[in-house]
Design a protein that fits this description.
Elements lengths: L3 E6 L2 H14 L4 E6 L10 H7 L6 E2 L7 H19 L3 E5 L3 H12 L4 E4 L11 H12 L2 E4 L2 H9 L6 E3 L3 H16 L2 H4 L8 E4 L3 H4 L2 H13 L4 E4 L2 H9 L3 H6 L3 E4 L4 H10 L2 E4 L2 H9 L4 E3 L7 H5 L3 E3 L4 H10 L15 H12 L1
Parallel strand pairs: 1-2, 1-4, 2-3, 4-5, 5-6, 6-7, 8-9, 8-11, 9-10, 11-12, 12-13
Length: 358
């Protein structure tokens, strides 16, 4: 039975996850792709649709940025209108953004089954907006597609067992599918004059780091003190805080830190694959580092991707200068990795399970 599905995305990680799922979904079902416009900068949004072959969104709500309550409320209004017009059989949401929660709530209020890709993740840090979004979305989801066995266990501890499936991680699907394309199409290493294995790749965007002058200063000081070549694609909101706190000049004066605008997924893959080490506060980048067997230092006190830590490929430092520096200088992962994230066929498994609901 062919289903009519509305897929809701809004942020860079969701575009990446949607690429393999939409490709598999559209072989059998009709998909209406709704972009909330949460990420609206071209390098954070349109570029991903262009280079990943994701179908153009059927509609972009163009919500943009704003306080959490205001942004989520505006999304709710727009999504509800679309769902009433489209009358889908199911709604599909990804991850843990405000777009995720707004899509989940709008579907639930209209009694439309809502399914959550990347269900069951927990940081156990309720100060993170993403943690609240995850928990609430999982509570009202009909089908919960978990990327790992750990995620299934988290749901079980919360009393959620119905509709739970360990499908593997759709980001692993994407990482495998696009790696060869990235090697063929991206020339970013040459453009930035980078030697493979001789630079650090850094990303930083989470409010606990960017909105906290003490944390952001510690991160910048560690990057300057490490005395290595650093490539730092800057999230638009991070730029504002660096300038506000007087840190941008210090980065630019260092001579070894290359600050660039956000890059597309294919260029990011190339930067990740060839880095000596990745320093990040991004959940997705932590995983990609693991997929590509690159040591990762995470600028947080906790992570949803605990497997990367227990396997010894990821070290948590928080935004603490000495811990960051020590990790950059001394952290060496073991040779072995376990297959925590599936076999690269999570998207097909999700589509099969969706089809079985009809």
């Amino acid at each position: 039975m062919s289903l009519n599905i509305v897929t809701i995305v809004g942020a860079r990680p969701q575009f990446i996850k949607a690429a393999p799922v939409s490709r598999a979904l559209r072989r059998e079902h009709r998909e209406f792709l709704l972009h909330t416009g949460q990420h609206y900068n071209r390098n954070m949004s349109q570029l991903f649709f262009d280079e990943l072959g994701i179908p153009e969104p059927d509609l972009n709500l163009e919500i943009g940025s704003g306080p959490h309550g205001e942004q989520t409320a505006r999304m709710l209004v727009g999504i509800e209108k679309v769902l009433k017009e489209q009358k889908p059989d199911r709604v599909l949401v990804y991850g843990d953004t405000n777009s995720t929660l707004a899509g989940a709530l709008a579907a639930a209020k209209l009694n439309i089954p809502m399914d959550h890709i990347e269900a069951g993740l927990r940081s156990f840090n309720m100060k993170m907006p993403e943690e609240i979004n995850r928990i609430l979305t999982d509570r009202i989801a009909a089908l919960l597609f978990c990327p790992t066995a750990t995620a299934v266990t988290h749901l079980w501890h919360e009393g959620i067992t119905k509709g739970v499936h360990n499908t593997g991680d759709v980001m692993f699907d994407a990482a495998l599918h696009f790696a060869d394309l990235a090697a063929a199409k991206s020339a970013i290493l040459q453009r930035l004059n980078l030697t493979p294995g001789a630079y650090l790749l850094v990303t930083c965007h989470r409010p606990q780091n960017t909105d906290n002058p003490e944390a952001l200063t510690a991160i910048v000081e560690a990057l300057i003190a490490c005395e290595e070549r650093v490539v730092f694609p800057l999230h638009p909101r991070t730029v504002g805080f660096l300038r506000q706190d007087g840190l941008m000049e210090r980065l630019e004066r260092s001579g070894r830190i290359t600050v660039i605008e956000p890059v597309g997924y294919l260029e990011m893959i190339q930067l990740e694959q060839h880095a000596r080490m990745i320093v990040t506060d991004s959940g997705g980048v932590q995983k990609e580092a693991f997929f590509y067997r690159v040591p990762c230092v995470t600028l947080r006190e906790e992570t949803e991707w605990v497997e990367t830590v227990t396997d010894g490929w990821n070290r948590l430092t928080g935004a603490r200068l000495e811990r960051i520096l020590d990790a950059i200088r001394t952290f060496t992962p073991p040779a072995e990795q376990k297959a925590h994230y599936g076999t690269g066929h999570a998207s097909e498994a999700i589509v099969r399970l969706l089809g079985a609901t009809g």
